[in-house]
Specification:
single chain, about 400 residues, alpha/beta, Rossmann fold, TIM Barrel, 2 domains, eight-stranded mixed barrel, five-stranded parallel β-sheet, 15 helices, 15 strands, about 25% strand, globular, binds ligand C2E, binds magnesium ion
């Protein structure tokens, strides 16, 4: 953990501008590398692993858009600021290109760069969180520091009657020094360090084992498991997971993979191959966080999904936003027209559940029904909730 937390890499063919940006960044608290050509940029990027990159769009021997592509191909999670003296439309388009490629775009800087503006941008992403290294994640997998929690998913059986029949597996990390680390933090790191496949295998095994345990209690639950888009580029994944399920005695019909479409699905032919084979092997496929960023209509219509999962953000807004209600209603209708089931996540209130009921939404998940919890707590949660629904099982 000796590496500095905040590392800035700047590329600009004007050395004086590089120097200006470097000075401001050091003042704000960054360790800085400044380069003036693309070759040095590529080299430094790999050695230095910047947490933020300031990139000049127009340089004599390389253009910034090419470098954005380079960063995307290397799976960069660094914040990226594009700088240029060109008009703001071009800057905005370059920013959009980066975003579409899955980069973490922080914005655009118009030249001449204003000191206060630059300083504010750099401060906005300055981190005080300690860096987590690849070997820590590897050790954590080996030491079983990751635990899988389960959040109940209720199915609408009749008007006003929602019965828990499934769960979503959500991974938790209890770090020995840092305490609980959110998946929003460790999943991107595992992806970046090439460890997501191992972490997923670990989660799959835990979830399949848990499903078998519930079976022995007479509870047949479906389990949803989140898949990193990176795995959708792995042609060996469908066979691997099918074998694991068969070995552990879990029926593929009961497993649903939740996938957020992302720019990491770099090669649509491969993703489609993998997703189709998962469906052929009888696994369910859910498009997660639908309605946000990368989970788009295009994906919905190209890929063989069986469920649409309406993103939290719409459901959380149901009570005070008319537009959110229109969006949710429309997403339910769209899913049904495409013969998909639809699940709403982020259901925190009875009013939200009632609204979903009126829309004919098929499944619901959220704190109202149950928070993510250890597997052994699920049977009791089911009993209590289902009993109140008039389904005493
Ligand atoms: P997600 O798949 O969209 O999961 C739903 C997230 O919303 C979970 O956060 C859950 O705890 C939270 N949530 C559930 N109900 C409510 C509610 O009523 N209100 C609010 N405000 N939030 C609710 P969590 O567990 O922090 O997971 C965040 C994301 O991390 C997940 O989003 C998923 O994309 C990813 N993730 C978690 N575990 C894994 C994993 O094993 N593998 C992969 N690839 N990704 C994972
Ligand atoms: Mg999910
Ligand atoms: Mg989601």
């Amino acid at each position: 953990m000796s590496e500095p937390l905040n590392r800035l890499l700047v590329i600009d063919d004007q050395p004086d501008l590089c120097e200006f940006i470097a000075e401001v960044a050091i003042h704000v608290g960054y360790e800085v590398r400044a380069v003036t050509d693309a070759a040095a940029f590529r080299r430094t990027f790999e050695e230095f692993r910047p947490t933020i990159i300031v990139l000049d769009l127009q340089m004599p021997e390389a253009d910034g858009v090419e470098l954005l592509r380079f960063l995307a191909e290397h799976g960069s999670r660094a914040h990226v600021l594009v700088a240029s003296g060109m008009d703001s439309r071009i800057l905005q388009t370059a920013e959009q290109v980066g975003r579409l490629r899955g980069l973490n775009m922080l914005g655009a800087l118009r030249k001449p760069i204003l000191l206060a503006d630059l300083e504010a941008r750099l401060r906005s992403v300055l981190s005080s969180e300690p860096q987590i290294e690849a070997d820590e994640i590897e050790r954590a997998i080996r030491a079983a520091q990751f635990v899988v929690h389960y959040q109940p998913k209720a199915v609408r059986k009749a008007r006003g009657m929602w019965v828990i029949e499934g769960v979503e597996a959500l991974t938790r990390w209890r770090h020995p020094d840092l305490g609980p680390v959110s998946p929003a933090r460790f999943i991107p790191l595992a992806e970046r360090y090439g460890l997501i496949s191992r972490l997923t295998d670990y989660v799959l095994e835990a979830a399949f084992r848990q499903a078998r345990e519930w079976d022995t209690l007479g509870l047949t639950l479906s389990t949803a498991i989140n898949l990193s888009p990176q795995l959708i580029n792995d042609l060996t994944f469908p066979d691997r997971v099918a074998r694991l399920a068969a070995d552990m005695g879990v029926d593929a019909h009961r497993i649903i993979f939740e996938i957020t479409e992302s720019a990491a699905m770099a090669d649509p032919a491969t993703s489609m191959d993998v997703l189709t084979r998962l469906r052929v092997k009888n696994f369910g496929l859910s498009i997660d966080d639908f309605g946000t960023g990368y989970s788009s209509l295009k994906q919905l219509y190209l890929m063989p999904f069986s469920e649409l999962k309406i993103d939290n953000s719409f459901v959380l807004d149901l009570s005070d936003n008319d537009d959110a209600r229109v969006m949710v209603e429309t997403m339910v209708l769209l899913a049904h027209k495409l013969h998909l089931t639809v699940c709403a996540e982020g259901v925190e209130t009875q009013a939200a559940l009632d609204f979903l009921d009126d829309c004919g939404c098929d499944r619901a998940q959220g704190y109202l029904i149950g928070r993510p919890m250890p597997g052994e707590a699920i049977p009791e949660c089911m009993r209590t909730w289902n009993a109140a629904q008039g389904d005493e099982r």
